[in-house]
Amino acid sequence: MIEKPAESALLTDLYELTMLQAYFARQMNATAVFELFMRKLPDNRHFLMAAGLEQAIDYLTTLRFDEVELAWLRTCGRFDHAFIDSLRDFRFTGEVDAMPEGTVFFANEPILRITAPLREAQFVESRLMNLMHLQTLVASKAARCVLAAPGKRLIDFGLRRAHGAEAGLLSARASYIAGFDGTATTLAAPRFGIPVFGTMAHSFVQVHDSENAAFAAYARVFPDNTTLLIDTYDTSIAARHVVALAHELETEGRSIIAVRIDSGDLAATARSVRRTLDDGGCQKISIVASGNLDEYALRQLALDEAPIDAFGVGTRMNTSADAPYLDCAYKIEEYAGQPKRKLSPGKETWPGRKQVFRIFDTSGKIAGDTLALEGDRFPGEPLLKPVMHAGKLLQPLPSLDEIRSHVRQQLASLPAALQSLDAAPPFQATVSASLQELAQKIDSQMAAYAHARNT
């Protein structure tokens, strides 16, 4: 039995294995270059944020076929034994170049490049896409929430409706690097060092004889971290209970940190609760709100000047509800030193190893990107950085705090139109003349080859 499915080499598409056997049979294993990119941005996105590189590198450095997996491959009847035996020593020995996590990017810009023997570069496709796609999707959505609620504390509440355990955990990481302050997903603390937050359940209130009793019990169990959920019954009455309890606790040297509302008209409810708290001398108690929030709801609450200090953002962020997938691709761009180009309608690729050069205006805003061949030299910062060589890390990956700092710089560099949630002209990288010429050359060669075969 495979005990840790998420770590298994068999967590891949079957065609990665059939490709490996076909390459093995034909003794094809020259150096290949694959690039991971997004063909286009969703209609309601002006930028994306690269995320998931750490997990991708973990996968590459630990990739192995164990005896249980090899035994299954032998019994499944699809592969010959010589090929299966060759997998015993299968490792990733190649190079990785990537945009640092938290980097803002746009359509057709590679965020990851794999240079490795063909079999290795081909096999890692599915899991790399799986890891990078999820966190990029969530980080991009979370970054929009951060831009929509400046100065507010944001907490990931999405585990219970995430699409599986790994998705919930990695969503906590992706939202944190994008600028969230923490998560309710407990495992994210020991796994990633992310701050965790929690309040109380409606059921805790319901199993007590009265709301008063529930609040008092919870406050005495957690005297240093009391946040009370006040919308189980009548929120206005509950707010008055909180005021009375707060004064009672003061005599014991204790305090209530916050109240949380999770339903109804959040702006109107928060204003009512704020008045009750302030009139009762509880100005220091903050208000936390949750309930199907996303960047659009956060923006509206800001426009309404709702007196809310922190937000729990879950389902719509963790599933990226309005754009639940990205049109990502992992395509071969070079093999055995020869550039390659895909010509499928609507899925054409630019050939060769590429680099993205970014320039900024005098105010530090992004002024333009150039998609060019790796060997080209253009003004600006090259975004793809060396990460691995010969299957080994070149230097330690950045900490989450370092990634968060990079994200703040990246979001600050976005022009106002790209920060906005409203419609804006799409940002397109300029394709260098040399890259266009290479594509035209390959097109001509392929047309000539097709003509020769048909005559």
Sum this structure up briefly.
The chain has 17 helices and 19 strands. It has 455 residues and is an alpha/beta fold.
Description:
The protein is an alpha/beta fold. The chain folds into two domains: 5-138 and 323-453, Alpha-Beta Barrel (nicotinate phosphoribosyltransferase), CATH 3.20.140.10; 141-318, Aldolase class I (TIM Barrel, Alpha-Beta Barrel). It is built from 17 helices and 19 strands. It has helices spanning 14-25, 53-62, 67-75, 81-86, 118-123, 125-148, 165-177, 188-192, 202-206, 211-221, 235-250, 266-279, 295-303, 315-318, 400-412, 416-419, 433-453; strands at 31-38, 48-49, 95-98, 104-105, 112-117, 153-156, 182-183, 227-229, 258-261, 286-290, 310-313, 328-335, 338-339, 354-360, 366-373, 381-382, 385-389, 392-393, 430-431. Strands 13-12-1-5-3-17-18 form a seven-stranded antiparallel β-sheet. The mean pLDDT is 96.
CATH architecture descriptor name of the largest domain: Alpha-Beta Barrel
CATH topology descriptor of the largest domain: nicotinate phosphoribosyltransferase
State mean pLDDT (0 to 100 scale).
96
Structural class: alpha/beta
Report the helical percentage: 40-55%
Tertiary shape: elongated
CATH top level class name of the largest domain = Alpha Beta
Poorly predicted residue ranges: none
Radius of gyration: 26 Å
Largest β-sheet summary:
7 strands, antiparallel
Between the first and last Cα atoms, what is the distance in angstroms?
Answer: 56 Å
